[in-house]
Amino acid sequence: MATETRQESAGCTENGNSRDLMDTPSRKRRVGEVTDSISTPEKKTCSSNGRVDLNKKRSDYLEWDEYFMAVAFLSAQRSKDPSSQVGACIVNSEKKIVGIGYNGMPNGCSDDKLPWSRTAENRLDTKYPYVCHAELNAILNKNSADVKGCTMYVALFPCNECAKLVIQSGIREIIFVSDKYHHTPEMTASRTLLDLAGVKYTQFVPKRQQITIAFDAINPTVTNPLASIASP
Ligand SMILES: [Zn+2]
C-alpha cells in the first residue's frame, strides 16, 4: 500500500515563495502505526523577556501542508451538507493553489429542493444521487489549463468515484486527514484504482488541532471598536 503519513518542514521565504519546491517531503510513518507526533505548535521566537522578538522571523508560521490542508478545511465551511463538510485544495509543483472545492449540489440545482438526508426508504430521497463531492468540484474549479502532476489536499480519503476523477485528471498525490470509511467497498475500490494508477496517497497528521482565524488580528478596532479605547 502506498498510504503514508507526512509532516513536512516549512521552507517559505519572507515574500512567501518556496525555497524547497523540489524537496521530497519527509515520510514519518504508515497508517496504522502508533505515533506520538501530535504535539503543541512551535513556540514563538521570543527574547529573554518572553516577548516576541520583532527582529527575528516568526517560527510559528504555517507549514505548507498545514496551510493547504487548512485551505481545504476552510473551504469545507462553505458546504451546506448538515452531516458532512468536506473541502479539497489542489496544489501544483510550484506550491500554488490551482483549485478549491467543497461538497454541494450541482450548479443551478437548488439545494433547498434536493434532499440532504443520509438515509431514506427510497435512495432518491437521500443526498447521494445528487451531491457533488469536494474533489470533483476542486478539479472542475481549476484555474489552470489542467491539474496534471498536482497534489490534492482533502479532509477525507476520496471515494472510488473521486479516485477515478483524480486519476483521469492527472493528479499524482493525495494528502488526506481522515480515512474513517476505510473498510467500505467504495474506499477499497478507490485504493485499488489509485494503486494501479500509481497515485500516491499520504495521511497528514496535524501537529496542532486548531488554527484560529481572527479577523481582528490585523487591527483590533475592525471588529471591536471599543478595543481602541481600552488599549493605549
Ligand atoms: Zn468522492
From TrEMBL:
GO MF, one term, reads: zinc ion binding
Cofactor(s) of this protein:
Zn(2+)
Keyword Amino-acid biosynthesis tagged: no
Q: Name one GO biological process term.
A: dUMP biosynthetic process
Q: Which GO terms describe its cellular component?
A: cytoplasm
For bias kind Polar residues, which ranges apply? 8-18, 36-50
Q: Which UniProt keywords apply?
A: Hydrolase, Metal-binding, Nucleotide biosynthesis, Zinc
Per UniProt, what is one Pfam family of this protein?
A: dCMP_cyt_deam_1
Instruction: Give the reactions, separated by semicolons, that this protein catalyses.
Output: dCMP + H2O + H(+) = dUMP + NH4(+); 5-hydroxymethyl-dCMP + H2O + H(+) = 5-hydroxymethyl-dUMP + NH4(+)
Q: Region Disordered: list its residue ranges.
A: 1-50
Q: Mind telling me which InterPro entries this protein's record contains? A: APOBEC/CMP_deaminase_Zn-bd, CMP_dCMP_dom, Cytidine_deaminase-like, dCMP_deaminase-rel, Deoxycytidylate_deaminase_dom
Q: Which residues form the CMP/dCMP-type deaminase domain?
A: 63-195
Q: Which residues cross the membrane?
A: none
EC numbers for this chain: 3.5.4.12
Q: Which PANTHER family match?
A: DEOXYCYTIDYLATE DEAMINASE, DEOXYCYTIDYLATE DEAMINASE-RELATED
Q: Which family does it belong to?
A: Belongs to the cytidine and deoxycytidylate deaminase family.
What is the protein's known function? Catalyzes the deamination of dCMP to dUMP, providing the nucleoside monophosphate substrate for the thymidylate synthase/TYMS. Also, part of a nucleotide salvage pathway that eliminates epigenetically modified 5-hydroxymethyl-dCMP (hmdCMP) in a two-step process entailing deamination to cytotoxic 5-hydroxymethyl-dUMP (hmdUMP), followed by its hydrolysis into 5-hydroxymethyluracil (hmU) and 2-deoxy-D-ribose 5-phosphate (deoxyribosephosphate). Catalyzes the first step in that pathway, the deamination of 5-hydroxymethyl-dCMP (hmdCMP).
**Any idea what this protein is called?**
Deoxycytidylate deaminase
Q: Please report the organism this UniProt entry assigns to the protein.
A: Branchiostoma floridae
Encoded by which gene?
Answer: LOC118420247
